[in-house]
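Data deposition worksheet. Section B asks for the primary sequence of the deposited chain exactly as it was used as input, without tags or linkers unless they were present during the calculation. Section C holds the resulting structure in token form. Section D is free text for depositor observations; keep each observation to a single sentence. Incomplete worksheets are returned to the depositor.
Section A, Depositor: J.P.
Section B:
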Amino acid sequence: MGQQEYLIGDVAAITGLSRDTLRFYEKKGILTGRKKANGYRYFTEEDLYLLVRILFSRKLNLGLDTTRELLPSDPLSPDYQETLQRQVREEMEAIRSHKQTLQRLLSMRKIYGGVETCKGRFCMKTFPAALLMCTADSLEDGLRQWFLLSQKYPGLDMVYIYDCYQYRSGFTLEPWESDGTFPEALSQADYEAELSYQRSCLVLYKEVMEAMELDYDFSGCKVLTEETCIHTVVETREARPDVSVISAMRRWAADQGLVASPDVLVTSNFSRIQEDSNSYVQEIYIPLLSG
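Section C:
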């Protein structure tokens, strides 16, 4: 008894595939209709079962060329199994890549929400638990290290650069002459507060590290524990923090009965072009010595 034969429209109705898709499969050589004297192409039940395998292969994200190669193969053969194993590895990598993209989006949403909440106001905030990836001796070297990490290791673009400064009130240890007056050689500017750059630290938050599933050996990284800090977010035209903001943060802490460390940690969450110049949105942390 011969097999039931189907026109391309019948196959489209049974499978839910469009005629164009079926013709495309014919063009790729993975499906073959038999043309009869009446000029119509006909397909058999075997072709329908073949389409089941084709569609299932497509659900495995196998390309059409790979699908065509596998159709005549024994699913238990080493070549077939190796193809499946390779596809498993590719899918696992794709999942990890999508997770990293999702974590970037979630982090940016959190950052922007924090900017709205904290911009222009002082508060107490815990510096997140993190890993110290490396340090740099200059702002330029810190940026260079970030580019090296982010290009070599997928996901390490989520490392933050914290520029570390030290606050100095400006008063010398011996500001007075023996008669109780200021030395004539010192001007008022000598007593103004200043910030001195110390180093740049490349930091990866542990929360981000765990979510990103990064392929990196973190065994040599120093663990930074959570630390209570004075915190604010400011927008400025300068990459360096404004010393007057730091002084105001320290005065605010003193009003709360808190003693601020001379250390100042600054990261620029993002920058934007505003009136033909860069504008930096900085997150500033000042650790507490005691409270």
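Section D:
The radius of gyration is 32 Å.
The chain has two domains: 5-72, 107-290.
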